[in-house]
User: Which sequence fits this backbone?
């Protein structure tokens, strides 16, 4: 167990593996509902939450996760409200909410930075600047890059504990409501006719995805988080047909990709782990689409040749 | 003669031209339900710029523009390729392609372009503040991006006017359009190429994420207000320009990120229209629901009276005193509804009995659709 003995690699490998497993499992529900890009929207919409957590004085990872979850969740709720109460299509609402929330986050972060610069040259004017003064200084030290690209290399053992703990809670909820979530994902009308609380299940599903995204966000970044929710599921879908197996296999593939990214990134130092994980998981998808038994394209071509 | 336009006004021009140029393709992105493809394209532009820079080693090269546009089209083609395998749904295909290309671009940049300082922060934030310093060669009193974006806007308008009938048909009835021989694939790629070009031109000013807001939100806002394609195009352009101008002025006033402020203003604009839009807004919906709830008992009363009009049971069924038993309402509610229905001229008293007026009869008949 060389990897577990290496004190710098261990938390990175364990953390990325755990995030991969979690994202694969939870992402399954987003993908089978044809809402794969929910993760993309949530991870962008988390930016103003991160900034607000800073402004309100939150410095611990938990506070930042909480802030990110709040705006991510708000964005998804707005999207659902807009789609339910107008003829705006889902994809438009999602893209619009993602960009508007992200833009607002940029406003907050830039404002804090500029404020910090001006406060070096003059004293604060008015209650707002006075109140923001200590927060502005901190916000400048924590760059935007950390949120956008994630900093897997800085994962520590404490972070791994947080990820595993919260991840276990998310998985417990999925397990508890398995039957309901399954039916609600495939046959909403039937589930509603059985008297399942659809609104509660929708909120639960959104909340689980939001929690997963914001948990991984600060370690793996916006783009990787979007990919991790989708790619392992698409790869797993080529091999199995049942939701239970799909969940497990997607979790497994996500974990493998996370682990591979951590190890490769460690061995070629300077190679950011995030992009390596994305490319690893993309390779899994391509291989699965080509070679998976029965569904694979290669097998299809071979069959065609055999019958011709 | 040299014309000197104040700095602030130049930035306003830049964002107004971004708003106008983005609004036109945005309408078709919303109507054709491919808004998220635009999101994917905008993420991948960075990849295109890195690859083109890798090939030319010149940050000012026009190949960067072409490379970025080509990467947008490549994204669309890859999504289409995945979808065609019938093994991946379109939304999942989008979610696969753009992170992969983005990751590839990031890896290339971090492996080989260490020496060049590609400032990720400022790329993502957009540099609208700096755009006035990059002047156009032909119109040296204007920022280059204003001239470029206005040119793109003019081309878009020209294409839309030229192909208006075809675009309309292909957008609202793709099947009929393809039987007439319009190539849907050609149209799709045409729209996506236009989106890529616009996004690349807007990239410098607003960055990759906010450009999605400028593409999608004005069109979505207009979609709440009109049913006509030509009106929607005009409205989106106006809303995009207003959002760009107001956002810029606000950002300059409080000294913050211009692109982000424009996106926020566009979001507020949408929220406002979503609330007050005539007929479709939240207020109109709530008022309709409230009116229905008020009107419904009067309708039931009119139906009840019409049902028993001229029958032997009329004397019993239409007597005001016992009406609550027949309708299964509370006596107090019956009185309130009767009074309101009288005021609206739907029923009238004939001694102890109630009877429908011609207007009430009309309402009751309407309810049955006769």
Assistant:
């Amino acid at each position: 167990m060389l990897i577990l003995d290496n004190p710098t690699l261990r938390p990175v490998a364990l953390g990325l593996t755990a995030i991969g497993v979690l994202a694969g499992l939870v992402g399954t529900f987003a993908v089978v509902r044809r809402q794969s890009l929910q993760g993309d929207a949530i991870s962008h919409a988390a930016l103003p939450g991160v900034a607000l957590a800073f402004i309100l004085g939150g410095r611990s990872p938990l506070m930042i996760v909480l802030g990110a979850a709040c705006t991510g969740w708000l964005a998804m709720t707005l999207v659902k409200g807009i789609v339910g109460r107008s003829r705006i299509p889902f994809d438009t609402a999602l893209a619009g909410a993602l960009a508007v929330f992200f833009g607002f986050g940029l406003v907050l972060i830039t404002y804090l930075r500029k404020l910090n610069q001006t406060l070096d040259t003059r004293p604060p004017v008015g209650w707002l600047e006075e109140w923001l003064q200590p927060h502005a200084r901190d916000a400048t030290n924590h760059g935007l890059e950390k949120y956008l690209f994630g900093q897997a290399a800085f994962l520590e053992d404490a972070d791994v504990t947080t990820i595993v703990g919260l991840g276990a809670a998310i998985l417990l909820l999925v397990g508890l409501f398995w039957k309901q979530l399954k039916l609600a994902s495939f046959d909403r009308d039937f589930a509603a006719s059985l008297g399942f609380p659809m609104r509660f299940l929708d909120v639960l599903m959104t909340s689980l995805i939001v929690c997963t995204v914001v948990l991984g966000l600060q370690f793996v970044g916006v783009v990787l988080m979007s990919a991790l929710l989708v790619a392992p599921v698409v790869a797993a879908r080529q091999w199995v047909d049942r939701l239970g197996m799909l969940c497990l296999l997607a979790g497994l593939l996500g974990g493998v990709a996370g682990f591979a990214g951590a190890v490769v990134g460690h061995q070629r130092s300077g190679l950011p782990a995030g992009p390596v994980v994305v490319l690893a998981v993309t390779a899994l998808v391509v291989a699965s689409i080509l070679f998976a038994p029965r569904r694979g394209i290669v097998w299809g071509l071979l069959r065609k040749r055999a019958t011709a | 003669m040299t014309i000197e336009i104040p700095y602030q006004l130049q930035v306003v021009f830049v964002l107004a031209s971004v708003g106008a140029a983005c609004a036109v393709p945005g309408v078709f992105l919303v109507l054709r339900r491919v808004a998220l493809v635009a999101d994917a394209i905008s993420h991948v532009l960075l990849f295109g710029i890195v690859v083109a820079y890798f090939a030319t080693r010149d940050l000012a090269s026009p190949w960067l523009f072409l490379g970025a546009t080509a990467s947008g089209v490549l994204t669309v083609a890859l999504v289409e390729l995945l979808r065609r395998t019938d093994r991946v749904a379109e939304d999942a295909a989008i979610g696969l392609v753009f992170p992969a290309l983005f990751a590839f671009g990031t890896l290339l940049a971090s492996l080989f372009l260490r020496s060049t300082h590609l400032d990720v922060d400022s790329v993502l934030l957009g540099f609208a503040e700096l755009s006035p310093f990059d002047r156009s060669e032909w119109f040296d009193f204007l920022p280059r991006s204003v001239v470029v974006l206005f040119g793109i806007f003019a081309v878009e308008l020209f294409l839309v006017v030229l192909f208006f009938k075809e675009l309309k048909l292909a957008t609202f009835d793709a099947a009929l359009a393809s039987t007439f021989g319009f190539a849907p694939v050609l149209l799709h790629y045409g729209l996506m190429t236009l989106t890529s070009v616009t996004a690349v031109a807007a990239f410098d000013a607003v960055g990759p994420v906010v450009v999605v807001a400028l593409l999608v939100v004005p069109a979505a806002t207009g979609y709440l207000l009109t049913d006509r394609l030509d009106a929607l195009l005009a409205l989106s352009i106006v809303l995009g320009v207003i959002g760009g101008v107001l956002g810029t002025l606000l950002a300059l006033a409080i000294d913050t990120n211009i692109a982000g402020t424009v996106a926020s203003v566009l979001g507020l604009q949408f929220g406002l229209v979503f609330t007050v839009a005539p007929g479709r807004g939240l207020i109109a919906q709530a008022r309709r629901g409230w009116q229905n709830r008020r009107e419904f008992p009067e309708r039931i009363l009119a139906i009840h009276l019409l049902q028993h009009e001229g029958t032997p049971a009329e004397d019993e069924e239409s007597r005001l005193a016992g009406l609550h038993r027949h309708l299964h309402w509370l006596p107090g509610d019956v009185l309130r509804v009767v009074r309101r229905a009288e005021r609206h001229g739907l029923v009238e008293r004939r001694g102890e009995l109630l009877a429908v007026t011609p207007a009430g009869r009309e309402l009751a008949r309407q309810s049955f659709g006769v």
User: Anything to note?
Assistant: Chain B has a mean pLDDT of 87. Chain B touches chain A through 64 residues (CB under 8 Å).
